[in-house]
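Format notes (please read before filing issues)

Several people have asked whether sequences and structure tokens are stored in separate files. They are not. Every record keeps both together, in the order shown below: the sequence lines, then the token lines. Line labels are part of the format and must not be stripped during preprocessing.
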Amino acid sequence: MTTFQVPKRMNFAAVSPQVFKAVLALDAAAREGLDPVLLELVQIRASQVNRCAYCIDYHTCDARKAGETEERMHQLAAWEESSLFTEKERAALALTEAVTHLPEGVSDEVYEEAARHFGEKELAQLIALIFTTNAWNRMNVTTRKTPGTE
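Then the structure lines:
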């Protein structure tokens, strides 16, 4: 199999270390209090939507370490059609897609379903995780950061 090499544009962390460190700090704060498996599912799903190969690779590795199964990760792209995800996970994934596709908005139905499964503090953390993941995706897609480079 021949692989296609996408040329990297820049090393963002080296060029803009203050911004990179700020996003790292935001990422650490967003993770507080969230279930490690759910956290990785959300990050993988946002990264799939944003087509960030680096982040998909990174978070599937972390998901395995957190105990996630290959079967669930394979079905994550079609989570709505899968019976492998809990109601709470489904609510988090629906919110992830709504926040990631923000021009379409976050409907009351999606928000209320997430609020039904997450307390206010946990929901705030989940929203922060989603927008932080989107920031990473945009940084890595724009600079063409490739899987396995770090």
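For reference, the curators noted about this record: Residues 26-142 form a domain with the AhpD-like fold (CATH 1.20.1290.10). The mean pLDDT is 93.
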